[in-house]
Amino acid sequence: MPNASPTSVSEDLSPAPLSMKGMIYDPNSGESYKDFVQRKRKRNNDYLSSLGFGENNLSSMQADLNRTKAARRSSSKPRVKPAKGVREPSRRSGRVRGEVVDDGFFVKSDSGRKIEINGVLNDDGTAGIAPTKVMFYDDRINDGEDVEAWGAYEEEDQEGVKKSFLEIFSSCGISSPEPAAKKKKKAKAKAKTTLKFSADNPASISDYLSNLTSSPVVLERNIKVTPDKIYSVCCAPTTQKLVCFVGDTWGHIGVYDSSAPEHEQLYSKPHSRVVTHLDYSPTSDKLLSVSYDCTVRLMDAETGVHTQLLATYGTNEAADKFKGEPGYGVDEGEGYFTQYGCWDKENGVANGKGIWLTSSTGNLVFYDTRSGKVEINGNVSQKKVNTMSQHPFSPHVVAVGGLDREVKLFDIRKFGTWNQKELSKTGNWKTSKTPKPFATHAFAGSINSSFFSPSGSYLLTTSTADVLTLTKDAHLQKGDMNDGSQVIKHDNRTGRYLATFMARWHGRHDIFTVGSMKKPRQLEVFSLDGKGFKCTGKIKGDAVSAVCSRNCFHDTMPVLVGGSSSGRIVVAGMD
Hints:
With about 575 residues, this protein is of the alpha+beta class. The chain has a domain at about 145-190 and about 235-510 and about 530-540: Methylamine Dehydrogenase, Chain H (7 Propeller), CATH 2.130.10. The protein is about 15% helix and about 30% strand. The protein has helices at about 35-50, 55-75, 160-170, 180-195, 200-215, 420-425; strands at about 105-110, 115-120, 120, 125-130, 145-150, 220-225, 230-235, 245-250, 255, 265-270, 275-280, 285-290, 295-300, 305-310, 340-345, 350-360, 365-370, 375-380, 385-390, 395-400, 405-410, 440, 445-450, 460-465, 465-470, 480, 485-490, 505, 510-515, 525-530, 530-540, 550-555, 560-565, 570. The relative contact order is 0.10.
């Protein structure tokens, strides 16, 4: 018989499992339910004590935990509170600061178990020199030089693309080889005849909506225009065809021409970050583009060149070479960016006198194009201001709204003038004197947008509180505007992957459009119906396959363009 291999016998020290005997209440046992609960609790406590989790042990463990926390607090450094009213300089990458890395291979980062190696390898297997990429202030496209619309393409393709761009731009508005004086006169005449608000009547609006919604949205009108998510849409004031400009996440401005062969789409890249707003001026034939990279550019329809109109800078060492620029000192440091911008307008038409901007720090900025100076830089909110709007016939009244959940109306004549010279002397940020708002409207959610209608009769607000609010004659009100406003329930919860909804007015009529989360996907059009606004038109079809967050009417044709987060547009109203 083979010898049995020796085995080690270990004693099982685990406690016996709890017995459920007698742990089910029996009303006929004569024991009260209260006594039963106390007996069961005592049984549980005795069992926990046998495992080392009794009341005495738990008190000891809690005392040890408290001593550990106290030791951590005593060894931690006290948190230094930032000085009130002082902003830290914006963080800049090493490349922007001018730091140079070693040639060949080098360790980019070494954290924990992960080591990241950077560098290039020559054909013979030796370490090479990485090509240096020229970096500009705040990772912008450049330091203010002009950008040609076709410059985003490969060099061998630029000549052909340039020709296509200029052919499209020549039909955008009033561009022609006429003398400047004659052209200016023609522009003013055109503004008076085509852009002036036209009084609405039910018959004309009904016909307009009928023409807009009767044409089916065919698949050929669902077009990829930009590489990334669309944040802004703008139509040129054409009369025979549609020319549409679209801004996306990474600074691209796509161009769609409905008459181009095979619906050819072109794009330029004048910015490095989100193009938050596009505004075409029919009186000057120039496209205004505003970006999160804190630059404002004008694209001339004659030349196809994006010229920098304004850029903001901080007061840190990296911005020293821009001290002579009008935007020096407007940037308030880390987290600052321009959120929205538009032309200064009179009677709803760009007057060429300046531009308005809002910022992530709650500032309202006015840049005077005539003097070349920032005249107003006032703080109107403690949080980001998403939009601003000027009353078309009382241009001294502006409405702002953003993350502070309140629409505010200001009289811009009461703002103080911003003093850039004082900033240069002291190095401290100081905004313009800001008056108190003369009217406010509080919401339960943040404000995506707030715009005056072409007639000036209504103020349309889109809020994350899932409402669209219309305030009658807001510019004439004082104090709280909540009473008397029409509230339309509307699902505005677009989530993190879609651009937020911004209900937008038509350029000449008191009708507006907004995206929709409903299925099947659709664009909604609202107009006056009786005493209030109602959804009187819905754009549906196989081509409307995604949520269109940013939409725009054409001023003179019954056309509506919707932009989605996939970089595609949907064109409704065209055969």
